[in-house]
């Protein structure tokens, strides 16, 4: 009788425990609240060091403490008694000195930066070095110039937080609902009159997970990538890189009888003008790298200039001189894209590896490069202020180039001021070219003079508000808008390049399309699934602003692909090929690429069309990862890698007090001991308990 | 296997098998051999196979001891100096700890 009861009891208990398993998932959800869409700081490495943030393998947990003033910092560092903490800070408080004091206090396990976008922007917010790319470019040849011998630094607001190794995770939370929850939870649980009161109560806490696999430096982690164990091969880090976009105004081919208009097999030295801009930028947080001044203004000006030049020069005309448009990737990380192009040019394999059996663009060498204009850190200067021109050497070619620019600029109300030639050039891709061949007649066009006027260089705040862009969407564009200014600059640049190509000033009527400029800025800054990008055949990008981080080399970045296809759309020649034939045969023709566009720009009703273009991509992977046995500590080429991580998550929950945790543990231990005793008891009396009948 | 139900001649066979097996770089076999047959070798009243079992148990014990000393020494040295050895240390590591040296 007793045994039957006992069996029923066991069944009931098993059933109940099954029930609690079903509810287990919901219980976990009740305990934790995911902070979705938080952006995390991650680890990056170069040949000698590691930078960025990491959490412990299972995440870092800390009690929330909101920092709004210096007194909150003092409380946290000196008075607080319930460590570890997670400091929740506003951008205006997020400074290097704060982070250093938090790190040295030993009480802080993580930082969450909150910004809902509506709060007042801090005066400056740049975590990049005060001398970006300090050790690369021209510094390799002539020593560092930025910041030495009373030279001013380019990025005075740069805090270098990005270039330090933090031993706690840092997250960036932008959603208002999450910020409210953080505040509510903190207010309900954590606000106490005396620090000691935090000891015996449950506290609101954050769990931040951003564990990074890589460590030490790129050399170490790349070595570790190659180790194979019996069962698995683990990846620790990936080289940074992507694709450069390049295009020539006129097609160039090794094959005379091809459809190319003139014989450009033997190009004279200095015949190819270059218009260059960088495609990438940087910030502390993964997936959130806007770059209005840092990249977008230059990219759109370059694309619009290419479009206008194609309009200005009728298809029937052909000239000896050519123009090469370059959009370079990875420039924020010691000039990855440009150093690869220079490396390839030196080895005669830019833009493609020569193959006599194929019609292809002949190699471009450094000696072919004539006037080189780089667009960098462009913005609309304050009324009456000029754009600035930087150059390394004074030469007749640069003088000529500047005089063209000034003359054409007058007509379009764009003023230029050429600064005295100086070894201290602003960070720019041109530096890589000059380091190899100092007599390239190159200039860098920037809005700033000797210091960035952009206070948010390489940060999450270099966003659409930083250039005061307002999308006109077909209606009239305001006279003082950034669109109009860049349109005028485009006209100036196109006219200047026209003079290089044809040797005479432009007398036609073609001008840059203001609505195109409006749309380009909108696409790059606000919605990457805009009409223009869709016309160019893009179906992959989501309805949100683009992120300009270069990414890792084996994952194709969105920005180069979109930029390339837009260049092709705006400058390509219409062909009669259908979709299946809309591609080139790589084994016979590498001169042109064919792009299947959804519609023509400005005419979304037009049918799909196959466009022939000279636009193409080239690898933007640092020579350091190409050269066999490259010495990663030599500093000659970029060695940047990005760590691999399993997850980036932030969770909010109420953490029991230490006493509570202790009680739970001892209760568990008691139950364990009791259950052992129970089993022993049953085992000893098994004959009596389980006897039949 | 319940050793108490095995006959003594079979015990000797098992003990010898384990002893020989241990030479194939299997120190755990020696350790198990030592523990399993300790009682038969030293604590039971004398029986025919006891002398041989005793020999195997003693040698197994010594073997296991030497192995454990050697392994312990190597593990301590490896854990202490793995990082200093750099590349060599990494190459000797089966599971590289993520995110650290």
TrEMBL record, chain A:
Compartments (UniProt record): Membrane
- GO cellular-component terms in the record? plasma membrane
| Gene3D superfamilies according to UniProt | Zn peptidases
Membrane-crossing ranges are 662-682
The superkingdom listed in its UniProt entry is: Eukaryota
**Major place of localization?**
membrane
Q: Glycoprotein as a keyword?
A: yes
Q: Quick one: signal sequence residues?
A: 1-24
A Pfam family it matches: Ncstrn_small
Q: Which intervals hold domain Nicastrin small lobe? A: 40-214
Identify this protein by name. Nicastrin
Q: Which species does the entry assign this protein to?
A: Frankliniella fusca
Taxonomy of origin reads:
Eukaryota, Metazoa, Ecdysozoa, Arthropoda, Hexapoda
Automatic annotation (TrEMBL), chain B:
Task: Give the record's keywords alphabetically.
Answer: Membrane, Notch signaling pathway, Transmembrane, Transmembrane helix
Identify its membrane topology class.
Multi-pass membrane protein
Query: InterPro entries, from UniProt?
Result: Gamma_Secretase_Asp_P_PEN2
Q: Any stretches that span the bilayer, and where are they?
A: 21-38, 58-78
Keyword Translocase on this protein? no
The record's section on Pfam families has: PEN-2
Task: For this entry, list what GO says about its biological process.
Answer: Notch receptor processing; Notch signaling pathway
**Chief place of localization:** membrane
Q: Name one GO cellular component term.
A: gamma-secretase complex
Family of this protein: Belongs to the PEN-2 family.
PANTHER family found in the cross-reference section: GAMMA-SECRETASE SUBUNIT PEN-2
What is the protein name stated in its UniProt record? Gamma-secretase subunit PEN-2
């Amino acid at each position: 009788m007793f045994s039957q009861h006992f069996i029923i009891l066991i069944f009931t208990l098993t059933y109940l425990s099954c029930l609690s398993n079903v509810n287990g998932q919901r219980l976990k959800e009740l305990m934790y609240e995911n902070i979705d869409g938080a952006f995390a700081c991650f680890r990056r490495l170069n040949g000698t060091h590691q930078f960025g943030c990491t959490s412990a393998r299972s995440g870092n947990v800390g009690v929330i403490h909101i920092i709004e003033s210096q007194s909150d910092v003092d409380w946290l560092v000196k008075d607080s008694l319930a460590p570890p903490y997670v400091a929740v800070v506003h951008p205006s408080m997020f400074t290097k000195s704060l982070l250093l004091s938090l790190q040295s206090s030993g009480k802080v396990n993580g930082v969450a930066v909150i910004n809902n976008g509506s709060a007042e922007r801090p005066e400056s917010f740049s975590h990049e070095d005060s001398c970006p790319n300090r050790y690369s470019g021209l510094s390799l040849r002539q020593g560092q110039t930025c910041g030495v011998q009373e030279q001013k630094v380019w990025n005075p607001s740069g805090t270098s937080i990005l270039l330090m190794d933090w031993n706690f995770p840092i997250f960036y939370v932008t959603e208002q609902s999450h910020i409210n929850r953080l505040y509510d939870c903190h207010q309900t649980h954590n606000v106490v009159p005396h620090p000691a009161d935090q000891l015996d109560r449950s506290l609101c806490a954050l769990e931040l997970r951003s564990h990074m696999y890589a460590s030490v430096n790129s050399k170490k982690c790349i070595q570790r990538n190659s180790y194979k164990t019996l069962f698995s091969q683990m990846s620790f880090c990936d080289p940074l890189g992507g694709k450069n976009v390049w295009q020539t105004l006129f097609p160039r081919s090794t094959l005379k009888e091809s459809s190319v208009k003139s014989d450009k097999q033997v190009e004279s030295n200095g015949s190819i003008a270059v218009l260059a801009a960088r495609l990438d930028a940087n910030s502390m947080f993964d997936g959130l790298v806007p770059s209005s001044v840092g990249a977008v203004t230059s990219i759109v000006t370059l694309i619009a200039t290419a479009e206008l030049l194609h309009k200005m020069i009728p298809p029937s005309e052909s000239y000896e001189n050519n123009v090469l448009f370059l959009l370079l990737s990875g420039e924020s990380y010691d000039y990855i894209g440009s150093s690869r192009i220079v490396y390839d040019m030196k080895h005669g394999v830019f833009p493609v590896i020569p193959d006599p059996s194929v019609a292809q663009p002949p190699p471009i060498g450094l000696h072919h490069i004539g006037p080189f204009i780089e667009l960098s850190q462009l913005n609309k200067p304050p009324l009456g202020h000029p754009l600035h021109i930087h150059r390394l050497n004074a030469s007749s070619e640069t003088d000529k180039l500047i005089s063209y620019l000034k003359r054409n600029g007058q007509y379009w109300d764009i003023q230029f001021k050429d600064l005295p030639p100086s070894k201290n050039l602003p960070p720019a891709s041109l530096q890589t070219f000059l380091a190899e061949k100092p007599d390239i007649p190159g200039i860098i066009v920037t809005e700033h003079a000797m210091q960035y006027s952009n206070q948010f260089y390489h940060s999450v705040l270099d966003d659409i508000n930083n250039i005061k862009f307002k999308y006109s969407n077909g209606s009239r564009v305001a006279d003082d808008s950034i669109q109009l200014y860049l349109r005028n600059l485009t006209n100036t640049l196109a006219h200047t390049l026209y003079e290089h190509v044809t040797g005479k000033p432009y007398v036609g009527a073609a001008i840059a399309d203001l609505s195109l400029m409006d749309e380009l800025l909108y696409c790059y800054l606000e919605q990457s699934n805009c009409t223009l990008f869709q016309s160019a055949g893009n179906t992959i990008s989501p309805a949100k602003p683009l992120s300009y981080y270069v990414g890792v080399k084996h994952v194709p970045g969105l920005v180069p692909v979109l930029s390339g296809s837009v260049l092709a759309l705006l400058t390509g020649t219409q062909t009669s090929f259908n979709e299946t034939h809309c591609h080139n045969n790589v084994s016979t023709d590498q001169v042109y690429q064919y792009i299947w566009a959804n519609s023509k720009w400005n005419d979304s009703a037009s049918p799909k069309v196959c466009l022939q273009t000279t636009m193409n991509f080239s690898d933007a992977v640092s020579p350091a990862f190409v050269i066999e046995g490259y010495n990663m500590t030599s500093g000659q080429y970029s060695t940047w890698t990005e760590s691999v991580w399993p997850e980036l998550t932030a969770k909010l929950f109420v953490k029991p007090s230490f006493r509570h945790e202790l009680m739970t543990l001892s209760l568990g231990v008691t139950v364990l001991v009791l259950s052992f005793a129970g089993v022993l008891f049953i085992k000893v009396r098994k004959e009596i308990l389980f006897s039949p009948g | 296997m319940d050793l108490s139900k095995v006959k003594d001649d079979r015990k000797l066979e098992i003990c010898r098998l384990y002893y020989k097996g241990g030479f194939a770089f299997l120190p755990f076999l020696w350790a198990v051999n030592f523990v399993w047959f300790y009682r038969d070798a030293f604590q039971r009243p004398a029986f025919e196979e006891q002398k041989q079992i005793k020999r195997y148990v003693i040698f197994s014990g010594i073997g296991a001891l030497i192995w454990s000393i050697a392994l312990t020494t190597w593990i301590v040295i490896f854990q202490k100096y793995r990082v200093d050895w750099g590349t060599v240390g990494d190459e000797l590591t089966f599971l590289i700890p993520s995110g650290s040296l």
